[in-house]
Amino acid sequence: MPSTAAPIPGTADLARLAAKYTELADLREARNGGAADPDRAVLRALSQAHPGCLRELDILGVPELRRRAVAAQDAAAGAEPEPWLVWIWAYHGLLAAALALKRRSRAKGGPPASIAAHGNDREAAVGSKDLFALGPALSALCARPPGGRLSPLVLGEVAALYGVDLAEVRRTLFPPRHPQAHSPNDAR
pTM for the full model? Predict the structure, then answer.
């Protein structure tokens, strides 16, 4: 579990994660059954609410997505959240902050000093993933991330924030592609 200084999700955050996983499982199940790809607006709304979640849709099978939905529902109902729930919640919040910084730096022609209105304060208000703060070093990297990808930077930040090994965070949140995650529509 995270240290006292690290942000933790509230009940509403956990309920939103449960709804996300239920929707992802439904989409994956439909894809596996040969249904047409979902409307882009559906995917856009999901990715705006939970940046990075389409990666979960692509790599996780229906059983794992349903397991995650139940774990999030249980935590929203008062059970102790599994550590990965805290990590994925933070991942979505930090990725949202990093993407906002990247967009802002493109619009202004260069990276601002920091995305966080709160400077180096890493605490986030419960239920407000947009208040995740990025430290100055990460803020500078977000404008031009190594390899052009923000996800590895954000995963590293999650690992540091919660004092967990990066490999464990990566393996837990985004394990290798599950065979059931492939659908007939993926070849299109």
Answer: 0.81
Q: Which of 181, 187, 185 has its CA nearest to residue 65?
A: 181
Per-residue pLDDT of 105-151, as tens digits, reads 776 665 444 444 333 333 332 233 444 666 777 777 877 788 888 99
What token pair was written down for 108? 């202004």
Distance between terminal CA atoms of the chain?
A: 41
Q: At what angle do helices 11-32 and 62-76 cross, to 10 degrees?
A: 160
- C-alpha–C-alpha distance, residues 63 and 77, integer Å: 21
Number of neighbouring beta carbons within 10 Å of residue 43: 15
151-162 and 136-143 are packed helices; what angle lies between their axes, rounded to 10 degrees? 170
| CA angle 42–48–50, rounded 5-degree value | 100
Nearest one of 57, 58, 59 to 22, comparing CA atoms: 57
SS (H, E, C) the chain: CCCCCCCCCCHHHHHHHHHHHHHHHHHHHHHHCCCCCCCHHHHHHHHHHCCCHHHHHHHCCHHHHHHHHHHHHHHHCCCCCCHHHHHHHHHHHHHHHHHHHHHHHHHHCCCCCCCCCCCCCCCCCCCCHHHCCCCHHHHHHHHCCHHHCCHHHHHHHHHHHHCCCHHHHHHHHCCCCCHHHCCHHHHC
